[in-house]
Amino acid sequence: xxxxxxxxxxxxxxxxxxxxxxxxxxxxxxxxxxxxxxxxxxxxxxxxxxxxxxxxxxxxxxxxxxxxxxxxxxxxxxxxxxxxxxxxxxxxxxxxxxxxxxxxxxxxxxxxxxxxxxxxxxxxxxxxxxxxxxxxxxxxxxxxxxxxxxxxxxxxxxxxxxxxxxxxxxxxxxxxxxxxxxxxxxxxxxxxxxxxxxxxxxxxxxxxxxxxxxxxxxxxxxxxxxxxxxxxxxxxxxxxxxxxxxxxxxxx
Length: 252
Hints:
By secondary structure, the chain is an alpha+beta fold. 53% of the residues lie in helices and 15% in strands.
């Protein structure tokens, strides 16, 4: 796998984005979407480990069927020959590092779960903070492609610290939900109508991806609006923006 200049820029953008406040599900979703492009992969899944039940749940997936994911949570995770070994690793790991591909292809897990959606070659990352497994990234290619290589592990090793830190913040942070009446009057005067509308969505606790759906715009366009808002209001991130808006003022 060759890392292009565009892919290197995407990694930088993702790491910077992970440094901002956002929701736990959005962290996993956006990271998965970005890594699929960078790693030229076909499928993505992410789960959260529940220590009390010793099981994975709260799934997010791209290009996988909901029925298949439900089957994993209810049955196949308890007959999974690779994930326990992958989970114990503290860094990005190729599936073939814990089980040869030929052996994996003989298992019920492969034939009745992975192959059902076309998953063939995999690379996983499990975000650990001390003894807590905060979430994971499971990235797969179909059999038409080659297996992942050292370049994929290198990309994931760059993303891992920012991904883990973002999940830690999301787990401990109380969501800031405010009404549009909390907008500072000076901000209302500075921002364009669209920027002001986006600020009001932020006040309601809306994620960037939900804002994109709300306004019918691309996710990248939301990020562009946020950068302009940050510059106009002289704030460095979403958290500082919320603090600025947390002032009494008239509902405009």
